[in-house]
Amino acid sequence: MNIEKFKIEDGILKQYIETTVDEDKIVYIPEDVIEIGDEAFVNCRNITEVKLNKGLKKIGSAAFYGCLCLERINLPMGLEIIDRWAFVDCESLQEISIPDSVIEIGYSAFCRCSSLQEIKVPASVKEIDYSFHSCDALSKILLAQNLEHIGRGAFTGCKSLEEIKIPDAVKTIGYSAFSNCSSLSDVTIPENVEEIEDFAFSACTSLAEIQINKSLKKLGKKVFSNCSNLKRIQMINQVQEIDPKCFEHCDKLRFLLINYQLLHHLEKKHQIIAILSFLAHPTLYTAEDAKNYGKEVKNNKDNILKELIQNEYIESLAYITSNQLIDINEIDHYIDLANKNKSREVLLSLLDYQHTAFTIEELMQERNDNLNKELTLDLDLDLD
């Protein structure tokens, strides 16, 4: 080891002087170093491996920023702080083991480590903030069960991440924490989460279903916006605040199970979906919510039935028919709509409802009444 390549002051490695000699691709840190200083190895592009010493306590800000060829680095037990931007753009780094002694992982510490595939956040770390954003190959994340806060942008843009189990101690999922995780399809949100901040799961285009716990109090702006494959959300809970555009551009959203008090905070199209979702699963709601949703059905019956027929909400039709909410003078109209929309299952259910809900005499009388109205209208027109 050539000590002349290091500038060390009071145990802080201030600067490493890089060469292009092959033998210098592996760097051994001297034993008396307790801190890798800010930008000490910045843009050292010949290094492939760094051997850190046992007494090291801190890796400073941007210490290894831009070390494009760095493939391996050992983080010793006893290390406490990985400062902000420490490993930004270390695009050849495939794996790293963070010891249990680490108490702080700084802002964007591993940003754009595009080859990093797996990460385990130790129990000693209580918060992460933009720490692993844009790690394109990151597919496995293990978070300690005592992690309390998933901060802003913690894993945004991790395109290979398919699943995440959020620890039980987490109370807040931060701004844009998992946004643009385009492969994310499986999310477990535990009981203690009270707030999901703005854009937290925005543009998670593989996410199809999510169930939110009963403790959640606030959903921020556009939390699930642009989740283009999201089909079902269940959050019949204590949510007090929700952004009207929470589900913006969720074009495949089919079931939105929410407590009644949130209904009129949603955009109109999502209100209709929420009502149809109630119709499909009325037993999931409290008696008070079921009563209020029932009133919404009666007040918006025509719009709801049109949406039901157009998008074939066959699961929601049973509530309508069992409560005989379609009158005898309306049934032919909705049968005609179902026929024109080619909604086969809905059409068959409506025909069956027509057959069982009304007697032949009632149907004949209704059609005669309609015929008489048409004849009267024709006579009025002739007289004019």
Structure write-up:
It is a single chain. The protein has a domain at 1-102: Leucine-rich repeat, LRR (right-handed beta-alpha superhelix). The protein is elongated and about 105 Å long. The strands form 6 sheets. It has a 6-stranded mixed sheet, with no helix packed on it. A hairpin with a 2-residue loop joins strand 1 (6-9) and strand 2. It has 7 helices and 22 strands. Helix 1 (268-280) packs across helix 4. 24% of the residues lie in helices and 16% in strands. The chain is an alpha/beta fold.
Give short descriptive properties of this protein.
about 375 residues; alpha/beta; Leucine-rich repeat, LRR (right-handed beta-alpha superhelix); six-stranded mixed β-sheet; six-stranded parallel β-sheet; 22 strands; about 25% helix; disordered C terminus
Short description:
The protein is an alpha/beta fold and 384 residues long. The protein is built from 7 helices and 22 strands.
Query: What is the name of the CATH topology of the domain at 1-102?
Result: Leucine-rich repeat, LRR (right-handed beta-alpha superhelix)
The CATH architecture category of the domain at 1-102 equals: Alpha-Beta Horseshoe
Q: Radius of gyration in whole Å, from Cα?
A: 31 Å
Average predicted local confidence, pLDDT: 89
Strand ordering within the main sheet: 1-2-4-6-8-9
Low-confidence segments:
377-383
Number of helices: 7
User: What are the secondary-structure elements, in order, as H or E?
Assistant: EEEEEEEEEEEEEEEEEEEEEEHHHHHHH
Helix content: 10-25%
CATH superfamily of the domain at 1-102: Ribonuclease Inhibitor
Can you summarize the main beta sheet? 6 strands, mixed
CATH class of the domain at 1-102, please? Answer: Alpha Beta
How much strand content do the residues show? 15-25%
Distance, first to last CA: 110 Å
| Structural class computed from helices and strand pairing | alpha/beta
Oligomer: single chain
Q: Based on DSSP secondary structure assignment, what is the total number of beta strands?
A: 22
Morphology: elongated
